[in-house]
Specification:
The chain is 28% helix and 23% strand. It has helices spanning 65-69, 107-122, 134-139, 173-176, 178-186, 200-216, 218-221, 235-246, 292-304, 332-342, and strands at 5-17, 31-42, 48-50, 89-90, 98-99, 128-129, 147-151, 158-163, 190-195, 224-233, 261-265, 278-284, 309-314. α6 (200-216) packs across α8 (235-246). It has a single domain (57-342), classed as Alpha/Beta hydrolase fold, catalytic domain (Rossmann fold), CATH 3.40.50.1820. β4 and β5 (98-99) form a beta hairpin. It has ten helices and 13 strands. The longest helix has 17 residues, at 200-216. It is of the alpha/beta class. The radius of gyration is 21 Å and the shape is globular.
Length: 351
Amino acid sequence: MKRVIVMGILTAMLITILGACGNTEGTKQSQEAQDMVSDSVKTESGETDVKNEARGNFYTVDTAISDVMDDPVFGDYGRLIFPVDDWYYSGDTLGDLHLTYYSNIDPDETVAITNYMKEHAVSGDTIFYDIYTVEEKAADPEKEDTGLFFFKGTPGERFAVCNAGGAFAYVGAMQDSFPHALELSKQGYNAFALIYRPGAQTACEDLARAIQFIFEHAEELEVNTESYSLWGGSAGARMAAWVGSYGTAAFGAGDYPQPATVIMQYTGLGEYSEGDPATFVTVGESDGIANWRVMKRRLDGMRALGIDTEFHSYPELGHGFGLGTGTVAEGWIDEAIAFWKRQMPDSTRKK
């Protein structure tokens, strides 16, 4: 049967996204005016339907990755939605996306994330913030490829910063931080996904700076800074643990409170100290990159020091499983959120 026949454009709506957020410097990206159109389509049976865009489904599994990155509604930050260095991903469409080191990428989740971003950008919401000023980026051009994608939850609720892995060579956000941040926002929490510079030191510096940015602009962002959490997978898990352990000042930012909770996925970090935050870990037992036994020993040692910990390992599961949709690990994020809530004061925890 023939596919639908486009009958014509019904309406065009001009949306101007303004780029300002209070008094923040270089934080809100200006966005070009968009002509959003809805096409009437007609099937062979003569029934009229509304195109995906009119329902907020701007992208599908067949949408080209380049079309998302180059979408004018995202302005300059569209290039940061996928790895800046295209060496680390393959596939031409959202449905074909593959990321180095990662498994179990869910195409429907990729589509949902990009549609969430566009829907909110079109609505005038700020979904991306620079963490460095124009002057700082001019002095160090590598800082151009940094920033925070914001998945807004309930105003006044606590925040989480999600850090993707990528072996400190690139940022695998579409599998390892965007899905987590979106899920957290659905549950009411304010979640940020950090795009950072490659390299362990610079990555931690960017995370520390991101925390500083959130604390400095908490009122404008409408986030509660108490009992915040740091999340990460693989290299991102190390970032969360290191900044959680050594503090933001150790990485060049201001001296801000320690996170209440660190959530770590699939990494083999063995070091710990008596001052570490409460820590939750998930890892696959068939992970050829991160040995689950290393993390088990780490958490056993932390628990012996009186630190609250929770450990989950999954048989026959490999590296980079993200939310674990469709795997034995599916649902782990709910357990992680429950663990985070346990670290909050009883009188203020989210019901």
